[in-house]
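pasting S-layer protein for the record, 551 residues
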Amino acid sequence: MAMSLKKIGAIAVGGAMVATALASGVAAEVTVQGEVTKDLFVKNGQPNCYVVVGADAPSTMDVVSAADIAAKIGSLCYKEGTVEDGSAEITVHAEAKSDDVDVYAETIPEGNYTVFVAASDSDYADAFENDTGDPYGLADALGVDDDELNEIVSLGDVSTMLKIEDVDPKDWYDSDDDAGEIVAVAVQNDSGELMVDKKNAVYMSLVYTNDEEKFENTTQLKLGMRIPFLGKEQVVVRIKTDDDSIGLGTLVYDGVLKEGETYDVGNGYAVKVKSILKSSTPGEYKVTVDILKDGKVIIEKTDVVTNRNALKIGCMGKISVVVHSAWMDVGENYGYAELIIAKDVKCLYLGEDYINDWVPYAVLKNGNNIELKKDISDSDRPKIVGIAFRYEGDEFEDLDDGDEVDILDYITFKLDDKDKEDKLYVYFSMDKTVDATVNVGEKVTALNAEVKLKGIEANAVEPVALTAPIAKLDTEVSLDSADKNLILVGGPVANKLTKALVDAGKLALDNDSPATIAVLPGEANGHDVVVVAGGDREKTREAALELIKML
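structre below
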């Protein structure tokens, strides 16, 4: 019997056991004497008691009950603290609108178009405004011929559209360039009715030379740059000419990994810099990067890094890596790679429908003019200054008060008479909600709002492994020398310590007693005693199960 108890007690140390048969199927009547509190059993995340069973107990059921109680106490052993790191899902909601103009006052001649433009910075929109021509080819990009263009009108900014103040924060390209969003709609007077036809609406995200605002000052879009994309900051991870695609993703890591190091992206994905080998050509390094899912390599790519190379997995919902540079330590024992890692990568396949008849294009600066291109070549790459989506669906006919043109479920071009006769105002409006994930101490930019997660107010629970057995025999513990509270399992026949308390008149228990849980303060060398017993083994078992429920 004693050997069985010691085995059960050892199992309880690890907290691996769970209480068995917690419900007997019949409601037990249990007498509870005194107040049962958690502090009797656990204090400061550690056991505050011994569970004691008789060494010569006639019933193995008492041993099982002692083990179940010990296991339950083990499950209560944990540390509580304040969460100091982690991440949170946030929701950003914003409403804003541009300036408006009365299209009746700004009469559009029969058969002609007026282009209305707004941006995240009014200077970007104002730079396109012109009442005599199309200096940057915006109207041409909207399918409007020069002889059909009436004028280009700036509606200023929509404050919730996103502008990035520094597209190159780690100075990969030694620049402080900016990036902003621009929207434009060409409205035609078609036999006295206003309409927006195929190609007549566009959204663009463009990179501008620092503090410049004219299209002629746009500059090359490069891997690793941060640009706005429908209100959220994204990092460019792919510009491929062989399949005419541009990839954008959510940045999760920007820094240096040592050869052999792994970065956990989440959801089972990880990125490992497997090896870095020095090439015979000065300044070149052969870098191998693995992308893993659930610990298994799902893609491995090796490239000679002299400047910038991308290592990626597919597109939607996957991971992409851009390696900027590599080097070795002084002793050339191991290497380092400077890189970025992005998740939730979106591949924009140029010329293919993206969403609701909006088609992505690369924006090229051809001279000083906008060129929307779906077939890009290596020679085009230095000319690519951004991305665009152009509407290529059915026409919007007979536009009047209350009508609108939705742009990528992001911003809306609206017509509103404001309850005024012979008036019809047009403007861009946004009422948008976006979700983002932000880590403690980091910032995220969404809808032109910069959000920093200062901290998370929450409690954390950490299980604590027990370092010593809490199950004891009644021959191993005494009431006179106990250094912890005692949980005595079994009546006076089964447990010598219970008998001593009964004989001393501290507790009344006999063969006819019901299932009983009795708290006796200070009866074990100043420590408390909890007796779990009954008139027979079944009653003791009922008392043990009730105690487990109470904890």
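Confidence is low (pLDDT under 50) at residues 1-27, 452-462.
Residues 60-75 form the longest helix (16 residues).
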